[in-house]
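Supplementary Methods, section 5.1.

A reviewer requested that the exact input to the structure prediction be made available. We therefore reproduce it here, unchanged from the version used in the analyses.
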Amino acid sequence: MTTRTADAVIVGAGVLGASVASHLARSGHRVLVLDRGAPGREGSGTTAGNLHMQAVHTKRPGQAVPLDSARFLPLQRAASDRWETLEEELETSVEVRRTGGFTIAETDEQCRELHDKHGWEAAAGIPTEILDGDAARAALPLLGPTVAAATWCDLDGYANPLKVTPAYLDSAARHGGRTLAFAPVRRITRNGDGWRVVAGHGAAERVVDTPVVVDVAGPWLGEIAAMAGITLRMTPVAIQMHATVRSSATMSHLVQHIGEGLSVKQVAAGNLLIGGGWPALSMDLAGRSGTSLDSLVGNVALAVRVLPFIRDLRLLRMWAGPLAATPDEMPVIGEVPGAPGFYVAGGTYAFTFAPLWGETLRCLIEGKPPPVDISDLGPGRLMVPAGGSARDNGLEQENPQDRRSKRC
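The structure derived from this sequence is encoded token-by-token as follows.
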């Protein structure tokens, strides 16, 4: 057993944990990142890597509660600015591509949603343009005949999630930060004014005393918080992605759907990545989540309808990954009330928000004002009183994964 000290222990070496590690280390903090497995292996390694800067669709397939798309926009605007300078900041390429994107609509109701979100985007300082179906097909001839309208945003894009997390961790390491992989956290207890974190097993066990714990453990966020005596109502889900074989450069823009679960882009290697939040067959937080044939058929059929050229491409593979989610589908970030020095961050669109949340957590830990208003996104709204239930905070919600299991 080895006892160490650190200025901050970060639980979770996904993109959020890596981002906050980089921000803290570059500010002179001694940080230690702990992960139960390999860095970036779970949700951060299975995400599509989209940079959603115009308003997103409010419900993924199977999602019960729509997210507040208008509330997201000031956060997306702030995140966009940080992605713009990220490669310079990290001193390496992470394949950030700001190629612009279309959000399409196929029905009258969806067209009205495009107009509504266009107004919200203008208020948030996000430039978008509304196109009718013919104008959208003139701009992107790959779009199919069912597309009735679209909004264009030149801030949309994507980055390579398999490069972003390692680049952040490398940045932290250059400034003294340390990462311990395959070191599952086993206990978190109060230690004076700070915390004692025990991780790993046997000869590899580590005991770390620290004034700050940052819980960015993705779908395990609730489990880690519970070790510190904090009960948070989280609703993790597993969703799946689909990739075609490589093809010649055909589509340079991100295409999303305003009313249904769809995002499509062609990455630098030539593969088309098709996603949109379709549910996996099952979520297995102790192993690998299973993929769903129904979601494969639904997601790819939707992609072919919107972008007919995809029907000529062979599907290469599909995979599922777990994600942190909250009952109200909004992000959670901040210090836990009643637990000084214990911070959490996670929830919807964490990849897009990673640079912003890393900076925000650094500001909070240093006692400085955050760069954006997060007063309504704190963990207090998710806390369950001691001896209470989820109903006590009005956030009880059936997990979408549970609903799907019941249907099966």
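The first strand starts at residue 2 and ends at 5. These observations are discussed further in the main text.
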